[in-house]
Amino acid sequence: MAGMNSAKWCFRIAAVLCIVAMLTHEILGAPKVLDPLHKVDLPAEVIWLHHFSWHVGSVALIAMAAMFFAGSRKTEHLALAGFGTFLSVGFAILGVSLAFFGNSALWSTPAPYPWALIAVLGGAGLYFARRRNLQ
Fold it and tell me: What's the pTM value of the predicted model, to 2 decimals?
């Protein structure tokens, strides 16, 4: 029983972090990143594709929060928490890779950081859930 309780808490904390990241992304990040695009000479499709991509990130965070929360509620939904963990690992790899191989300026933004923490929490939750199932 302790293994599943630990898993539930890991998934719930990961879900809360996803929601906090999404709110921070939209409330603090969007004005800093999206508003300046309208002040430079870029084609409209570039500006609005960036808007679209920005908000896709927010939708992904909401979906991941739902996956982690579902995984915390029923063992039948562990695959959802696994998929949320997989997405977070992918986003962590993307953020770190772009900072290393694209432009180191990305290190001064939040982009490379929260994904790794969410992935670790999701991975820990999966570990505890599996450990519980093996006992």
Answer: 0.91
Residues whose CB is less than 8 angstroms from the CB of residue 118 and which lie 6 or more positions away in sequence, other chains included: 14, 17, 18, 21, 64, 84, 85, 88
Indicate the SS3 state at residue 103: coil
Is 69's pLDDT higher than 60?
yes
- What are 125's two structure tokens? 């939750």
Residue 48 sits at φ, ψ, to 5 deg, of -80, -25
CA distance linking residue 7 with residue 45, whole number of Å: 44
The DSSP-derived string for 17-80 is HHHHHHHHIIIIIHHHHTGGGGGS---HHHHHHHHHHHHHHHHHHHHHHHHHHHHHH-GGGHHH
